[in-house]
Design a protein that fits this description.
The chain has 421 residues and is mainly α. It has 15 helices and no strands. It has 3 domains: 9-30 and 40-211 and 257-368, no CATH class; 217-255, no CATH class; 376-406. The chain has helices spanning 9-14, 23-26, 42-45, 47-77, 90-123, 130-153, 162-185, 218-228, 236-253, 257-282, 287-326, 334-337, 342-352, 354-366, 372-415. Residues 387-421 are annotated as: Disordered.
């Protein structure tokens, strides 16, 4: 399967797919009549699929909030002198383990769903309208929100299992890079990001063909130059106002810059957080540095939760707004809207499947791992531990006896010859 994004009419023609860019017919970008509205693409941006992405991200935020509160408890409350020697309640620790397991499950599901979405979009790169492309970009950012909360709030992500953690990181990075290609392709001066006639035209007619050039980094220099060019104004106030005006103009012209920048910032923060937590476990930091890094981690966790909440709310609002203005009214597609296709059922069942992980995590945390094999293994481990403890105690007694004997001999030698038996 060849990667097709960004696409253009020429690239699509080379793959025997015709793309018609009717700029003369839809160039005004005015409001749509009912006869001009688009049918929903249920296989990619169906209502049920988008809502699953939104609900998944929202649940990840709630779970992350609980883990962030636990961070405050561990690093601020439990670190007090009066609390250092007290053990945490076992059920509380098991509850945190259950929440972490559930968050990892939602992240894994979002990873699979997002990669499947990317592959489906790639296959329809030449047919997808600009409107449906905008919805896809919103869904991809929602997928990244779940991963961000996973990496920011499970403090010992790498220490719990390096190989599994690295396997997850590779998948998340692959998703982010491919999502970056899709989002960056929308950062062109004429890509329609709002409802209107232009959004009917295929997305391939607008895409930025430099998006795969190191994720479009070469375009940032052009953007920076256009923003910082202050014209002929000489005083500082005028320069600042000109820069602000340029920034507004550039952001408006590049409609997808906000979501793409969000993706890049999230990736940087998440990787920095994982690296910081890993170094805290490996380096012998002073108490002051450890507390400083822990507080910075807590601050980043709460900031990520706030940012994630804002993104989820804006994404939901944006989706409803675009859908209400661009798609055929429900009255004309009542029969079609009630159909349940495989692509709509699968994400819902994947999300429902997380209940299995919840039950498993809860039972293992509060009841233990069932099965005769595990019971025998646990019993053998206890017996072995008891024997090792007895052996160590015996060795300690022998060593103590040797030390006592040596001390007695030294005392006798120092006291002189013994007489009078």
């Amino acid at each position: 399967m060849k990667w097709m994004i960004p696409s253009s009419p020429q690239i699509c023609a080379a793959h025997n797919q015709a793309v018609t860019c009717n700029f003369e017919l839809y160039g005004s970008n005015g409001p749509l009549l009912d006869v001009q509205r688009l049918a929903p693409n249920e296989d990619i941006t169906g209502q049920k699929i988008v809502k699953v992405f939104i609900i998944n991200a929202f649940i990840a935020i709630v779970l992350s909030l609980a883990l962030s509160v636990d961070k405050v408890k561990v690093n601020e409350y439990d670190s007090r002198p009066k609390r250092k020697d007290k053990e945490e309640h076992k059920r509380f620790v098991k509850l945190i383990h259950t929440i972490e397991t559930l968050l990892q499950t939602f992240s894994d599901q979002q990873l699979i769903a997002s990669i499947a979405l990317l592959l489906a979009v790639n296959q329809q790169a030449c047919q997808l309208s600009a409107y449906h492309y905008n919805l896809v970009c919103t869904m991809l950012v929602l997928g990244v929100v779940t991963h961000l909360n996973l990496l920011m709030n499970i403090t010992d992500f790498l220490n719990k299992g390096k190989f599994v953690a690295l396997y997850r990181l590779v998948g998340i990075l692959a998703q982010m890079v491919l999502s970056g290609f899709v989002l960056k392709a929308r950062m062109s001066n004429n890509f329609p990001t709002t409802a209107g006639l232009l959004s009917i035209i295929p997305a391939a007619c607008f895409e930025d063909m430099n998006s795969t050039d190191i994720l479009g980094v070469s375009n940032w220099s052009t953007l920076a130059h256009s923003v910082t060019t202050a014209g002929v104004a000489s005083n500082t106030t005028a320069n600042a106002k000109q820069i602000l005006d340029n920034l507004t103009a550039s952001s408006t012209a590049n409609g997808g810059i906000g979501e793409y920048t969000t993706l890049a910032v999230f990736l940087f923060i998440a990787l920095a957080s994982v690296t910081s937590e890993y170094l805290q476990q490996k380096l012998n930091l002073t108490e002051r540095k450890r507390i400083g890094m822990s507080r910075a981690s807590i601050a980043c966790s709460f900031m990520s939760i706030i940012a994630s909440t804002v993104i989820v709310v804006l994404s939901f609002t944006r989706y409803n707004s675009l859908r209400s203005e661009m798609e055929i009214p429900a009255l004309y597609r009542a029969v079609e809207g009630n159909q349940w296709t495989f692509s709509q059922i699968l994400p819902i069942l994947m999300m429902a499947g997380s209940s299995i992980a919840v039950v498993k995590a809860v039972t293992e945390s509060f009841i233990g791992i069932p099965g005769r094999r595990f019971e025998i293994q646990a019993a053998n481990a206890l017996k072995k531990g008891g024997r090792n403890l007895e052996k160590n105690n015996g060795n300690a007694d022998v060593e103590k006896g040797d030390r006592d004997g040596n001390s007695s001999e030294e005392h006798l030698l120092q006291s002189g010859p013994v007489t009078g038996f």
